[in-house]
Specification:
The complex is a heterodimer. Chain A has a 5-stranded mixed β-sheet. Chain A is an alpha+beta fold. By secondary structure, chain B is mainly alpha-helical. Classes of the chains: A alpha+beta, B mainly alpha.
């Protein structure tokens, strides 16, 4: 620790307000302090009207992502020491590319609606009376699915994506990553519908392969790789006439 | 189904058809890119290897006149470029101007044809 207090700028925006603004607070520094600790301190000690979202505090739930010094991060797993320079300045805003409900709380509906649009739910045929499906863990498809399966839907990739910023109808990295894991699930029976849903210029083919999503994913998932896989899979199926 | 629902269903079907066409075009853009990668490598490699007395039209034409093998190579090069470039322009038009549908498609087909014509003329001049 370099100084005993932090100069924190926090985005404040009321629902009826057209444009929010940053408000400055001074917060004491403590050992092993996380950005979420800072936000919590402000709400509990300085301004109880501050709105933010969190739940587990240990990087399991994916609800506390915010823009910290310009980049989207999980605030619960981001130590202040890691993001603050010698000037002890911290800037905390809501996630980008999502509408703000109030202050640091964003409306995630659009984000999760796109998972549904990308056919992000498993479709199977077996019932509880059937035997277990046997999937070889080392198979190429299962390995591809496993690489993306740990997503907890925090929205960091979505907030990092410049293509989402330019094209609000783009499904985005999280929804496409989910579609990719299911496209590699041999038990799933909705493959053609899913490939149709993720095709084209609002789907996987508009990705610029900039890789900001892969760079910033706190789970080290690479949506860029999954999207590249979907591009190939979808285009092959389209050229073969399998998508109608 | 009422009129609004019918329109919405029609719009969704139209978007779906467009998305599948986008995917097909992407396939052709990627395939032509692979061909272009080889062609550019051969083109530049030959230039670096073969040019001795500076890059002059006379020296190049001296080697390519009557050489139909180079003609065939550049024919492939031109065709790959004539596919790849308009598809890239289409993606830029879509993204920058939000201009979609039939008209931009016709414009890029025209650009592709013009591009091919220029390329064919150049090849003709090179090997004739």
């Amino acid at each position: 620790m370099t100084t005993s207090s932090l100069q924190v700028r926090v985005w404040r925006e009321a629902p009826e307000q057209e444009q929010g603004n940053f408000v400055s607070y001074e917060v004491p520094r403590t050992p092993s302090q996380t950005v979420l600790d800072v936000v919590t301190y402000i709400q509990r000690k300085l301004d109880p009207s501050l709105s933010y979202r969190f739940s587990c505090r240990v990087g399991m739930c994916g609800s506390c992502a915010m823009t910290v010094n310009g980049l989207p991060r999980w605030t619960c797993r981001t130590h202040v020491d890691k993001v603050v320079g010698a000037d002890s300045r911290l800037e905390i805003g809501p996630l980008a590319n999502l509408p703000v409900i109030k202050d640091l709380t964003t409306d995630m509906r659009e984000f999760f609606d796109k998972w549904a649009q990308a056919k992000g739910s498993f479709q199977g045929t077996k019932t509880r009376h059937d035997d277990f499906a046997v999937v070889a863990p080392a198979s190429k498809q299962r390995a591809a699915a496993n690489a993306g399966i740990e997503c907890i839907g925090c929205g960091v990739c979505y907030a990092s994506c410049d293509v989402v910023a330019w094209r609000p109808d783009y499904l985005g990295p999280a929804a496409l990553n989910r579609a990719w894991t299911l496209a590699n699930d041999v038990r799933d029976t909705a493959q053609t519908e899913r490939l149709r849903a993720v095709a084209g210029d609002a789907g996987c083919h508009v990705c610029h392969t900039q890789g900001s999503c892969s760079e910033r994913c706190p789970k080290q998932i690479e949506p860029t790789a999954g999207i590249a896989g979907l591009k190939r899979m979808v285009a092959r199926a389209a050229v073969r006439g399998e998508l109608g | 189904m009422n009129a609004t629902a019918h329109d919405a269903a029609e719009l969704a079907a139209q978007r779906q058809a467009e998305a599948i066409r986008d995917a097909k075009l992407w396939y052709w853009q990627r395939l032509s890119a692979m061909v272009l990668a080889v062609c550019v490598f051969v083109h530049l490699g030959t230039m670096i290897y073969a040019v001795r007395g500076g890059l002059t039209a006379a020296e190049i034409l001296g080697r390519t006149k009557g050489n139909w093998l180079w003609g065939a190579f550049y024919l492939v090069f031109v065709l790959a470029a004539a596919i790849h470039v308009p598809l890239g322009l289409r993606a830029i038009i879509n993204e920058w101007f939000g201009w979609r549908g039939r008209l931009p498609m016709q414009v890029i087909v025209l650009i592709g044809v013009c591009y091919s014509m220029l390329g064919f003329a150049a090849i003709w001049g090179l090997v004739r």
